[in-house]
Amino acid sequence: MSKKYKNYINGEWVEPSSGEYFENRNPANHKEVIGLWPRSNARDLACAVDAAKKGFEVWRRTPAPLRGDVIRRAGDIIASRKDEIASAMTREMGKVLKETEGDVQEGIDTAYYAATEGRRLFGHTVPSELRDKWAMSYRRPMGVCGLITPFNFPLAIPTWKMFPALVCGNAVILKPAEDVPHSATLLVEAMIEAGIPKGVIQLVHGLGEEVGAAIVEHPDIPVISFTGSTSVGSMIGETCGRMHKRLSLEMGGKNAQIVMDDANQELALDGVLWGAFGTTGQRCTATSRLLLQDRIHDEFLDRLVQRAQRLKLGDGLKDGSEVGPLINDQSAQKVASYVDIARQEGDEVLTGGRRAEGDGLNDGFFFEPTILRGVRPGSRLACEEVFGPVLSVIRFSELDEAIRINNEVDYGLSSSIYTNDVRTAFRAMTEFDNGITYINAPTIGAEAHLPFGGVKKTGNGHREGGWEVYEFYSETKVLYVDFSGKLQRAQIDTYEAAPY
Ligand code: NAD
Description:
The protein contains 15 helices and 21 strands. By secondary structure, it is of the alpha/beta class.
């Protein structure tokens, strides 16, 4: 009998009101059930919101540096359990241990950055246009924040949202993706041990279209932060617009690595292998388009195919595995359907293109690293997010053409260019229409203390990480203090104070 896990509401671990649970299985071996997690509904959410509103009243009055101290302690606790959390994450999400260790480290980095922000949360003090008057602004929390997260970064992305929201003085309700509930459970355990007061954090498990949608529609949750697919994000955007909620959306990508003929090709090869097939291609920043300049196209592609064929697929917990499984069967079917589309569009499958079989692979959702040659700009493989280990290779002649191809998709998250020409690098940095551009590095590899996010259909203008996210989770309040002892009217009496 599998273990039943619980929601965390009002400082207690509680069962779902319906008594229903969903299974969490290991994507490397779907016969293995990791546990059962609550299939929560709107009633569970109503309890979570009531608790969060009470928790908010306590937390918003807690000085921000002390809020930061709790987050720092959580960072220490997560660091001390890094191995345990990374193993649990690999077991439910599939990516190899080195990568889940990186995911946990990103959560730790985010904690330590957030803790220091508790001693900043800067407002402004500016001169008033009138004498004997002060003008200043400060940051206030907003209330209860609904945090809805995807499966691919089971610890890092919840911390990107939760820690800044908490440092700003908000209470939160976290709804993790249904494929990775264990990692979120371990995160909340660390927060409890760090001393978070009751009601400040609620963890509500369940399906997106059930409890996820209920969070978005709840009138007492004024802030929603969502990371996931563009289709779900667009629906959430409609509801939040109608309900006047503050909303941060981080969604899909169709990221390109461009290799110029003057580039260090060995470096570019390492970069594209990691960018395209790391996390089995399931990163919002994954390299899914490779643009090769004419002169190097054939040779680079030959070497890339040879290296891709040597990648070792396997259970991410086993030594030597380089590429883990896809998250679930539905995802493997979707990736396979894109390979069919590629064939119909006339692309050549140079390697991969099917579910992987063999020793240790048959009970998992493994898919062979796939490289498509001759993909045409504007075709579906060149434009749509596949979210799997499928790389579309596009040939180009001139930098201007590469810039145009990079920019002509609906998404705008990450881009990369390999070149040894400083003019080319600076033109790319200026012209690429993305939230992040890497020079001589792959499209993946964001650091916790810089803003993260994309333009166009990747996002809605907000950023996670770094200093910018603190703007999202707080409201600016302006204060004027007039100690002149008389009525002074801005814009009307201003020039009476002038010395000229
Ligand atoms: P998804 O959209 O299927 O699910 C994301 C979350 O939304 C899950 O918790 C899910 O339960 C919930 N959800 C689903 N339907 C909902 C609804 N109707 N109302 C409310 N919530 C709902 O995404 P996924 O498959 O978990 O993640 C993959 C996607 O996430 C990819 O498109 C990827 O590019 C994107 N992503 C983006 C970033 C970024 O920062 N830009 C980072 C990671 C992942």
